[in-house]
Amino acid sequence: MASSFLVSTLVVAIAEIGDKTQIATVVLAALGVLALSGVSL
Fold first, then answer.
1. Do 23 and 14 contact (CB within 8 A), yes or no?
2. pLDDT score at 35
């Protein structure tokens, strides 16, 4: 639970700082890497 909260907080913080399109690309890329690594969410 704590880790998911931390991730959510980081995502929101980064989104507030950066461009939304760039953030979406980074998030999708990260999810793709996790999927390729065999990590299930």
1. yes
2. 80
